[in-house]
């Protein structure tokens, strides 16, 4: 009888761990930069431009023959979080337009055939005024009107893209976005293309009524994460379908005025963290997920022109209140969002028509878009516009400032 013996090595836990460690040491981590956002004109959508947009561009000499729209050049688009955070991470001089303007708006209103206040607390339409024709004195009065009424509308405009850039430069520091698409041409870097066809091509999926859930339907304020966040913001919709795509705005002055004096006092002087819409790779923690740019801002801020206090938090960008436990922060923020979003008496809903401009103050408002431009077939309605953002002051809270209702004598002896 023959006995066969065989030596079998049984892996021990230590062997396995050593093996894994050896493999892990040999691993190299690389980021596929070909997947990063491509600059220039990676996709020419000019053939899909609506007729009204083409007519506007042709009238005002915007050349889209190279393709449309355009992104910043490749070398300038941030890939890493620290690069995105470094964009405008310092104070830039800002002039508070409207501070010394005529409170009766005589020059501006002389050009209007009608001044229509759309609701009691927010929203005014100036009829008969062409933004293209306004001089600096009239724009200064407009800055004051926007600061007071939060959002001002102009229909039937023939607005040149160049004039839109100039108006943005007058109202503040024109925001040049590091990634977003702008109309073709370096001179239009401060305009952002707001276009249903572009959004459709970006998501790569067919939106339908049931599946359409987009970021901008969440109530938000634009660019609150900036060192100097957005002030006056100007969306010109040059082509809108017959129906759909309304926008709602809500007043931050009035949202603050709805709180009890004790709660107002609790919030004054506190800060909340605000985040960007876009997210970036953290070079020191590339597997930790994309990170947004974040800065803390005062929850109650004083408007430098009206001197009124406003509530500066929003569901789209605010993450937490500094100094509070996460649970406490969440309960308070959810309540503040509700005040802004559910108080219909401090809101205006606006129905766009082709050739309409809306100028609003992101320091003292939130807005939300109605995404009803899609149906079950995924038709996006081909809505197109250009938006400029004028960045404003470094946000501040002045303990001596008044609320709007206090300043207007509407709550003379409030003790509740
Ligand atoms: Fe927005």
TrEMBL record:
Domain TauD/TfdA-like: 114-387
Keywords from the named record: Dioxygenase, Iron, Metal-binding, Oxidoreductase
Cofactor(s) this protein requires: Fe(2+)
Pfam families associated with the record: TauD (PF02668)
GO molecular function, one term: metal ion binding
UniProt-annotated stretches for the region Disordered: 397-416
Coiled-coil residue spans: none
Annotated Gene Ontology cellular component terms: cytoplasm
Top-level division of the source organism's lineage: Eukaryota
PANTHER family registered for this protein in UniProt: ALPHA-KETOGLUTARATE-DEPENDENT SULFONATE DIOXYGENASE (PTHR30468), ALPHA-KETOGLUTARATE-DEPENDENT TAURINE DIOXYGENASE (AFU_ORTHOLOGUE AFUA_3G01010) (PTHR30468:SF9)
Entry's family note: Belongs to the TfdA dioxygenase family.
Name of this protein: TauD/TfdA-like domain-containing protein
Organism, scientific name: Wickerhamomyces pijperi
Phylogenetic lineage: Eukaryota, Fungi, Dikarya, Ascomycota, Saccharomycotina
């Amino acid at each position: 009888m023959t006995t066969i013996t065989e030596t079998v090595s049984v892996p021990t836990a230590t062997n396995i761990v050593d093996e894994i460690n050896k493999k892990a040491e040999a691993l190299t981590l690389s980021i596929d930069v070909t997947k990063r956002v491509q600059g220039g004109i990676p996709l020419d959508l000019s053939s899909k431009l609506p007729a009204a947009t083409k007519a506007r561009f042709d009238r005002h000499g915007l050349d889209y023959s190279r393709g449309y729209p355009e992104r910043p050049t490749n070398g300038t688009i941030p890939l890493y979080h620290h690069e995105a955070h470094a964009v405008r991470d310092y104070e830039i001089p800002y002039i508070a337009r409207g501070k010394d303007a005529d409170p009766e708006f005589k020059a501006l209103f002389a050009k209007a055939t009608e001044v229509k206040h759309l609701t009691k607390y927010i929203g005014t339409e100036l009829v008969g005024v062409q933004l293209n024709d306004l001089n600096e004195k009239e724009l200064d009065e407009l800055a004051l009107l926007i600061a007071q009424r939060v959002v001002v509308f102009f229909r039937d405009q023939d607005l040149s893209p160049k004039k839109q850039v100039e108006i943005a430069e007058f109202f503040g520091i024109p925001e040049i976005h590091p990634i977003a698409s702008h109309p073709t041409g370096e001179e239009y870097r401060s305009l952002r293309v707001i276009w249903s066809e572009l959004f459709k091509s970006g998501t790569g999926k067919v939106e339908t009524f049931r599946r359409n859930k987009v970021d901008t339907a969440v109530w938000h304020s634009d660019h609150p994460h900036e060192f100097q966040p957005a002030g006056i913001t100007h969306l010109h919709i040059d082509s809108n379908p017959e129906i759909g795509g309304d926008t709602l705005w809500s007043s931050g002055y009035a949202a603050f005025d709805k709180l009890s004096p004790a709660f107002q006092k609790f919030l004054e002087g506190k800060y909340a963290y605000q985040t960007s819409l876009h997210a970036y790779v953290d070079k020191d923690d590339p597997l930790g997920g994309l990170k947004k740019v974040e800065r803390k801002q005062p929850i109650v801020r004083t408007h430098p022109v009206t001197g009124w206090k406003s509530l500066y938090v929003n569901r789209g960008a605010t993450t937490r209140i500094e100094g509070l436990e996460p649970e406490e922060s969440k309960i308070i923020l959810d309540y503040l969002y509700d005040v802004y979003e559910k108080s219909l008496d401090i809101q205006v809903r606006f129905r766009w028509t082709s050739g309409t401009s809306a100028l609003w103050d992101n320091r003292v408002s939130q807005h939300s878009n109605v995404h009803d431009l899609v149906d079950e077939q995924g038709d996006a309605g081909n809505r197109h516009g250009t938006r400029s953002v004028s960045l404003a002051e470094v946000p501040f809270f002045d303990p001596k400032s008044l609320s709007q209702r206090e300043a207007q004598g509407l709550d003379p002896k409030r003790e509740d």
